[in-house]
Amino acid sequence: MDNNNFRQSVIPMFLYSSSSSSKYLIEFEHLIAKPPNCSSSSLSTSDLGQLEVFSPAYYAKCSIGGVFSCGLTHMAVTPLDIVKCNMQINPAKYKNISSGFGTLLKEHGIKGFFTGWVPTLLGYSVQGACKFGFYEFFKKAYADIAGPENATKYKTLIYLAGSASAELIAGIALCPFEAVKVRVQTNPGFAKGISDSFLKFINAEGTAGLYKGLGPLWGRQIPYTMMKFACFETIVEMMYKHIIPIPKDECNKSLQLGVSFAGGYVAGVLCAIVSHPADNLVSFLNNSQGATISNAVQKLGLLGLFTRGLPLRILMIGTLTGAQWGIYDAFKVVVGLPTTGGVGARSLKGKSYDKVE
Fold first, then answer.
1. Closest alpha carbon to 114 in 76, 86, 150
2. 293, 285 in Cβ contact below 8 A?
3. What CA–CA distance (Å, rounded) separates 282 from 147?
4. CA-CA distance, 193 to 195, in Å (whole number)?
5. Cβ-contact 226, 163 below 8 angstroms
6. Within a 10 A sphere around the Cβ of 111, how many other Cβ atoms?
7. Does residue 246 contact residue 25 with C-beta atoms inside 8 Å?
């Protein structure tokens, strides 16, 4: 294998592993300077099912992991999401978290806590597939463009650029489902089912109405996703470097998945704070026909834009993001891929990934 091909294989693997540990950085730079004989083992394949890393099959598995990660978790927190949206839209009636749940239960019963679960499941499943699959793709692509030295030096920027690019696509996939979800959750009796809700929404606002919240949705989701991926990679890296007493390769899978959940939860809290103003805008625009961003700002006020519903969203997004990373990495372990973040010498040298324990 020539030096250029070696670099193209090793750099993405290094970014995939995500570590700034001096020990592994020195080893990584040594490998770049003096590429080993790769005839007996390849950096582009795994022994588990002969899966070629960074192949279409590899990205497909990452996308499937994203479906389970985002679709199931967002559906599970539907009750929290309904109360949050109503607190944003009708604060006089839904004054706080406890009264919000009480009001919802009193007026709509237990069934009311799961209104809109179908568009939530479908929308965030396709969004998760795009988010995780394209993140892996863009992370490698930008590493190849940057070259070995810059990819190592500016890996956080690559995480940010890769996640932003992925969410740009994922937001387009999510937007119609999010529009219908908010309308159903904040207007009881709006529709009877998923097909009926889409038809009524289109009849009222046209097909273009499904995308009127795309700008605010990007404004919410792109910063959220950038924080979600870059913070997660950094937090997990720091946990393996400063908290976990043994190298990642010596940790069992349960411990690695625990690290994934913890890192995801902390990253989720940061995500919620950064993306909350745009989340208020998305809820306001999709609740009212003909509403504009200026209408939302006038009604909510700048302080309300940043704070209304924030405590509940921190609880929801922190739990959600932690669970997403736990599910995503658990799926990767099942299909024979390494958990996200951290590094081991074997990953850099191209040896086989650990089998599921």
1. 76
2. yes
3. 38
4. 6
5. yes
6. 7
7. no
Render pLDDT for 198-218 as a digit per residue (tens, 0 to 9): 999 999 999 999 999 999 899
SS3 131: helix
Structure confidence at residue 291 as a pLDDT band (50, 70, 90): confident
Give CA–CA dist 205/207, Å, rounded. Answer: 7
For residue 309, which of 95, 75, 76, 113 has the smallest C-alpha distance? Answer: 95
Q: Using the 8-state DSSP alphabet, how is residue 77 labeled?
A: T
- Express the helix, strand and coil content of the chain in percent, nearest 5 each: 75, 0, 20
Map residue 288 onto helix, strand or coil.
Answer: coil
Task: List pLDDT tens digits, range 26-65.
Answer: 333 333 333 333 333 333 443 444 577 788 999 999 999 9
pLDDT at 28: 32
Please say if the pLDDT value at position 352 is more than 60: no
Q: Are 282 and 220 in contact (CB under 8 A)?
A: yes
Q: How is residue 69 written in tokens?
A: 């990660």
Cβ pair 279, 320 in contact under 8 A: no
Indicate the length of the chain as a whole number. Answer: 357
pLDDT tens digits along 4-14: 554 444 444 44
| Per-residue buried b or exposed e for 261-288, using 16+ beta carbons within 10 Å of the residue's own CB | bbbbbbbbbbbbbbbbbbbbbbbbbbbb
User: Amino acid identity of 328?
Assistant: Y
Instruction: Check residue 50 and give its pLDDT.
Output: 57
